[in-house]
Structures are given as structure tokens and as C-alpha cells.
Amino acid sequence: MVTLRLEGLGARYGKREIISNISTGAFYGGQVVAVIGPNAAGKSTLFKRMAGLIAGPGEVVLEGSTKGRQGICYMPQNINANARLTVYESILLASKQSTPGWAVHDAELSLVDDILHSLGITELAFSNLGELSGGQQQLVSIAQTLVREPEVLLMDEPTSALDMRRQIQVLDFMRSVAKKKQAIVFIAIHDLNQAMRFADQVLVIADGTAQGSGPCEEIITVDMLRDVYNVKARIEKCSQQASHVIVDAIV
After folding, report:
1. 200-225: pLDDT as tens digits
2. Do 131 and 232 share a domain, yes or no?
3. Which of 78, 105, 122, 137 is most buried, by the most CB atoms less than 10 A from its CB?
4. Which residues fall within 8 angstroms of residue 226, CB to CB, at 6 or more apart?
5. How many independent structural domains does the chain possess?
């Protein structure tokens, strides 16, 4: 089983320190990890540092992997779409990033078909990327990431352009992917109620540092909401599996 932990991770842009000394316990294959925190807390920078796209101190400790760092895939929040490609072509091209050579095999075509079907976008397969809405482009970006069959998936606000139904569908699907593939799925998300519904673990980032990590019910507390988000809130348990955050006032 793949495991991942962070040891003293940091990153700078020029002289400005964005994240510093972020350390966590181990996250395990099969888990969804919600990465939460205010705007500009450093979540996107953390993902880029974990993916090796930017340098900095500290270490991403990955164990039990069959792909090494190649098994860590990052899906950015902002999507750069080549409007000349069709949806199918763009996903197939993404799959070749993790397979040698340019010959296309039946198994790769089948995987693309399965992912399109699972995300409910089969009808878009031969549409040009430039014709898609923001939400549709976001779903295609998820497909481009999944087709690489990552062991660790870093998703930066993957549902921000989706309506409520699609958000629930995608988050539920990503939870099933984590379980089925025994992958670790990190999702940066602002909706704490969705985080508590779909995530196994949560990592809180604020002011470029880790404010806590662990099971949702242990980390998402009224004290954390006050200290990190500056709100007065209640957490009400709706069922044995779900709780909800209710904000009463801004502190």
C-alpha cells in the first residue's frame, strides 16, 4: 500500500516564503484527504511543491509506490486547454505522459472510454476543448489526470466550476477511485460540509503552515473554525456518518 507523509515542507516565490515547515503524519492508499483553509493560505503552492513543480526545503516521503514520483499527479485549478484538440484526443494525449512510446493500445482506448463514461461526459468526446463551458473543461481536466492512473492525486479545487449535482457526483466518484485503486486523493476544497462528507482525513493550511491534520471529526472543530476562519460556528451531527458546519457570526 502506498503511503505519503510530509516532513518540513517549504517553498518560496522569490524572497517571499509561501509555505514553511509543513509536516504531517502518514496518509494511506484508499484515503481521500481534504486540504482546507482560507484563500491565499498556501494550498496551491503546497500541491505544486508536493508534485515537484517548485523547489524548497523538506521532503515528500512516498513509500510503497511502484511508480515513484511519477505516480504523483497534479491537477491545477486553472486549466489551459488546447482548443484545437477534441476532448478524446486531449485525454488520450494525457495518457501517453505515463506510458512509453506513441503507439496507442486497445487498453488505453478502453481506459479513456471508461473514464468518460464514469464522469458522464461521453457525449463530449469529439467536441473541441474550446467549445466547452468552464465546468465541462474542469471535468475533462479530471479525466486527463485520472487516465494517468496516479497513486497520489493532487486536485486543486476540482469542483469550483461545477453545479451542486456535479460536485457531489465528482466527489463521490473520486472517493470510489481512491478505494478501488488504493490511491491517495488530496482535494483542496472550500466547502467544509462536503469535506466532512467525502474525506477520510483533513489537512488544515493557514498562513502557509499546517494547523492540523487527521480525521475530520478531530480536526474540524469550533475552535479551529474560530482560529483559522475567524467565524463563530456550530457543528451539528446529522447522522452517524455526517456532520454540518453552521456559521452563526463572523468574529
Report:
1. 999 999 999 999 999 999 999 999 99
2. no
3. 137
4. 232, 233, 251
5. 2
